[in-house]
Amino acid sequence: MTELFVLAEHRRGELRDVTFEMLTKGRELIARADVDLTAVLLGHNVKELAIRLADQVKKVLVVDDARLKDFNEVAYQKVLTHLISERKPVLILIGHTSFGIDLAPSLATKLNVPLATDCIDINFEEKKPIVVRQVYGGKVNIKASLRTSESYIVTLRPATIEAKEVKPIGGEIIEVASPLKEEPTTKRFIEYFEPPAGEVDITAADVLVSVGRGIKDADSMPIVEKLAEALGGAVACSRPIVDKGWLSADRQVGTSGKTVKPKLYLAVGISGAFQHVSGMKNSELVIAINRDAKAPIFRAADFGVVEDLFKVVPILTDRVLQEKKSSK
Amino acid sequence: MEIIVCVKHVPETAEAEIAIDSSGKGIKTEDLVFDINEWDDYAVEEAVLIKEKLGGRVTIVTVGSEDADKTLRKCLAKGADRAIRLTDKAFDGSDAYATAKILYGVIKDLPFDLILTGTQAGDDGYAQVGVILAGFLGIPHATMVKKIELMEGFTRVNRELEGGLEQVMEVGTPALLAVQTGINEPRYVSIMGIRKARQKELKVLGLNDLGLKEEEVGESGSWITVEEMFIPPVEKEAEILVGGLDAISSKIVETLRARGLI
Amino acid sequence: MAMEELAAIKKLDFNMCMQCGKCTGSCPVSPKSKLNPRRFMLETAYLISPLTMHPPLNIQEKGELWDCTTCSTCSYRCPREVKPMDVLIGLRSLLVEAGNVPSTLGDALEGVYKYGNPWGLSRSKRQEWTQDLKVKYASEEEKIDLLYFVGCAASYDSRAQVVARAIVKNLNALSIDFSILGNKETCCGNEIISLGEKGLFEEIAGNNLALFDRYGVQKIVTTSPHCFHAFKSRYGRELAVKHYTQYFADLIDEEKIRFSGKIGKVVTYQDPCFLGKHNDIYDEPRKIIESIPGLRFEELGRSGKRSVCCEGGGGRMWYDIPGERLAEDRVREALDVGAEIIVVACPFCLLTFDDAIKTSGNEERIQVKDIMELVAETL
Question: Does domain C3-97 have CATH number 3.40.50.300?
Answer without folding.
Answer: no
